[in-house]
């Protein structure tokens, strides 16, 4: 997909143009300083030549002319340094702003490509599975497998469309959060059951405290947990353990979802919650995704006055911890 490289190419061009303009402006400033300095010393020379040697004030006037010339030099240097300072501050500001802009543009482009891919794959796979079921007489086991795969794909589609719609609605203020009394223990258990059916090879371990209640938006809380479970499955080996803990604290509830994947390197821990952010390079990445999931998790927890963070699971993997105030 060649257009993926367009922003990088443009960025290189903009960087070259930027440095050229900056150097040109600094060179012009230097040139301006030298010319002024030359003019000032020429003026001083003319005035010295005009002096008459037998003037009783001669020495005093020479001194005055020299002093004025020195003062002008100081003035030009001061003005030059101020201009240079302003230019450099402006240059740093523009440089950072442009880089940020390009980064966002590139992430958005990656997102658009990812989304196209993410939408097409589940549709194509589901269509093929359903056609196979329709055309061939299959034994029960194969049928089950095809149905399970189709369900997995439609679930992926569901998560994706939810993520896109809800994040844009939350951004634009189009989604009104409605808080209800929730039995979080039940919500989490049900979601795990759902994942157990979709991914039976996994070792699902639960430490769910009973009767953990929370006042929250049911749809958003489901999207939050669903995204974290989805990532735990997506970013860890097929039969590895996913550990889900839920407990009631003094003033908050705590949900932790740990997996046995590669985990999140320290420098990435803060970045993964940014919109469209995905670890690594788009061209070498093998997992599918849009970079919206954790952004949405962060937004949902913040909208419920809670926090989300990631720590290292032992001996390996990531552990996402959500804390939500229970009133
Ligand atoms: P997506 O999964 O669609 O790429 P997310 O916002 O859910 O987007 O995650 C952002 C990035 O954080 C992912 O691309 C992945 O690199 C990293 N990540 C998220 N969850 C995990 C996890 N459980 N283990 C390892 N890396 C993860």
Keywords:
327 residues; alpha+beta; Heat Shock Protein 90; 6 helices; 7 strands; 61% helix; disordered N terminus; binds adenosine-5'-diphosphate
Characterize the structure shown.
By secondary structure, the chain is of the alpha+beta class. The chain folds into two domains: 7-108, no CATH class; 180-325, Histidine kinase-like ATPase, C-terminal domain (Heat Shock Protein 90, 2-Layer Sandwich), CATH 3.30.565. Helices cover 61% and strands 13% of the residues. It has six helices and seven strands. The chain has helices spanning 6-50, 58-135, 140-172, 184-198, 218-234, 293-303; strands spanning 180-183, 203-208, 213-216, 241-248, 252-258, 307-312, 318-325. It has a five-stranded mixed beta sheet with strand order 2-4-5-7-6. It has a two-stranded antiparallel ribbon with strand order 1-3. A hairpin with a 5-residue loop joins strand 6 (307-312) and strand 7. Helix 1 packs antiparallel against helix 2 and helix 3 crosses helix 6 (293-303). The radius of gyration is 33 Å and the shape is elongated. Mean pLDDT is 90; it is low at 1-5. The protein binds adenosine-5'-diphosphate. Residues 227, 231-232, 235, 259, 261-262, 264, 272, 277-279, 289-295, 318 line the site of adenosine-5'-diphosphate.
């Amino acid at each position: 997909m060649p257009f993926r490289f367009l922003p990088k190419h443009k960025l290189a061009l903009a960087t070259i143009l930027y440095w050229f303009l900056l150097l040109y402006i600094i060179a012009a400033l230097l040139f301006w300083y030298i010319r002024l300095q030359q003019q000032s010393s020429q003026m001083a020379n003319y005035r010295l030549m005009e002096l008459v040697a037998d003037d009783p004030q001669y020495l005093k006037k020479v001194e005055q002319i020299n002093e004025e010339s020195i003062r002008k030099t100081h003035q030009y240097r001061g003005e030059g340094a101020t201009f240079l300072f302003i230019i450099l501050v402006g240059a740093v500001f523009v440089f950072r702003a442009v880089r940020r802009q390009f980064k966002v543009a590139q992430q958005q482009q990656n997102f658009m490509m990812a989304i196209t891919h993410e939408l097409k794959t589940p549709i194509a796979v589901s269509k093929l599975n359903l056609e196979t079921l329709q055309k061939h007489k299959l034994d029960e086991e194969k049928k089950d497998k095809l149905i399970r795969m189709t369900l997995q794909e439609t679930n992926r589609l569901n998560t994706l469309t939810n993520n896109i719609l809800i994040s844009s609605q939350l951004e634009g203020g189009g989604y009104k959060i409605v808080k209800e009394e929730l039995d979080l223990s039940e919500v989490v258990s049900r979601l795990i059951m759902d994942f157990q059916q979709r991914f039976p090879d996994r070792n699902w371990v639960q430490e769910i405290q009973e009767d953990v209640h929370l006042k929250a938006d049911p749809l958003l809380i489901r999207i939050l947990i669903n995204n974290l479970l989805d990532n735990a499955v997506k970013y860890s080996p097929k039969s590895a353990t996913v550990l889900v803990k839920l407990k009631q604290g003094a003033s908050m509830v705590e949900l932790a979802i740990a997996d046995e994947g590669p985990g999140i390197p320290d420098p990435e821990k803060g970045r993964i919650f940014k919109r469209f952010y995905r670890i690594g390079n788009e061209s070498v990445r093998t997992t599918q995704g849009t970079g919206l999931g954790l952004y949405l998790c962060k937004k949902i927890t913040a909208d419920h006055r809670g926090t989300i963070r990631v720590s290292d699971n032992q001996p390996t993997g990531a552990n996402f911890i959500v804390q939500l105030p229970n009133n």
